[in-house]
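[scheduler] slot 2 assigned
[scheduler] job type: sequence-to-structure, two independent chains
[scheduler] chain ordering preserved from manifest
[runner] begin chain α
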Amino acid sequence: MKAIIQVLNQKMSNLRFFVYLLVAFALILTSTVVVLLNSLNYYEPADTFYSKAPGQPKSFLYVSPKEGRYSVGDEFTVDVLVNTAGSDVVATAAYLSFNKSAMQAVSIDTSDSAFIMDAEKEVNNEQGKIKITIGKPTPGVRDNAAKVATIHFKALEKTNPILENISFDFTKGSSLYSTIIIDDKKGTNILSTTQGSKIFIN
């Protein structure tokens, strides 16, 4: 009888060892599977508006036509336009220089401007300068070709320009010259690039 009990105890001991071994193996296997699944499912967070700052807003001022040909004594017009490049713009300052010996600025017309409030409309033919500042309340203007103003000129003498002879006074980031103000309640200037015009007079 004693021998039988010893055999049974030995079998129970072996069974417990086997169970412990099985449990340990199961735990190791489960841990390994979890680690593998996590490694397979890992990914870098997507770039979103919240995880990464959006690109810097930009806008552009330009004169149309880019090139014009007239005769001495002709009256002609150029349009000052703004491309807001997807941003809402509440104010635009277009400061221009022109060849005062070849042309005369007669008037500034904002009657069909995309903006509705005139803050500045100034012509200085002695210096060859034009200043236009115009605005529109929130949400402002969003357009690829929003008219700021039409400028009327008179051709005075012959000229064959190599460079633009109607151009914007502009230093990037400066509020002293041409500017475009985004609707961010901070007065941020987003003017990035300007393009003037070459006027040929025969």
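[runner] end chain α
[runner] begin chain β
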Amino acid sequence: MKTQKILITGANGQLGSELRELAANYPQFDFNFTDYQELSIIDEEAVNKMFDEYQPHFCINCAAYTAVDKAEDPSERELVDKLNADAVGFLAKACKKHNTKFVHISTDYVFDGNGTKPYKPEDPTEPVSVYGITKLEGERLALANTDVIIIRTAWVYSSFGKNFVKTMMNLMNTKPSLNVVSDQYGTPTYAADLASAMMQIIASGKWQPDIYHYTNEGMINWYDFAIEIKENMNSTCEVNAISTSGYPTPAKRPAYSVLDKSKIKEVYGIKIPDWSESLKICMQKLC
């Protein structure tokens, strides 16, 4: 049987880096890891050339503009639109043309955060930030141009890149105290777990295009998350709970962004670890 090819964009980010770590476990696939140096996904001609030359069976789009606050700067809007929306359309069209199965990563920010129970994939979307608006437009362009599996996730961290866990560890090592918001609720996602779930889907041979949600199990707030990080480090740093109003940011954050994962579990039999167990695994790599 011919080796199936997987094209991965945004390969140097948290999720792309975790997929690279997993690749050796899937020798039945040929992986092509690209970041903007190898493939500018905002250049439709470059996208088409890559697909013509590589002929991928699968494309996993991990690339995005994720600087949520910076995205609110009007001078950044054109780039945010290109990366989070236009580029997704380019990839989706190329996937359609080449009969490539498309997996696209999206976000909890497509919701307004005013909910009180876990968001299902079919729940109404109403983003309240530029990041959320452009990611939702990316979803729309993907769905309009090909059959796609969209996976929304939230609060992503890993041993790679910049993220909350690494920031907290650094601050707790260098500061006597810090403040963390306690009125924004969600679930952390260890990028290694999400990467594993994505590869399980691809390796299953079952292709059921739809919108799915994936985070680790459980529900906490950012303060709870910071306290768990502190305890895993045995840090003496004092962590104080504050309200969102006490820590204003350019982009509005969802107050509640817990995602309902039942669909991905039912359709693909994905087993999802608890957030606290996955945090320990990641921190063991970092310590």
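[runner] end chain β
[qc] chain β: The domain at 4-161+189-216+257-274 is CATH 3.40.50.720 (Rossmann fold).
[scheduler] slot 2 released
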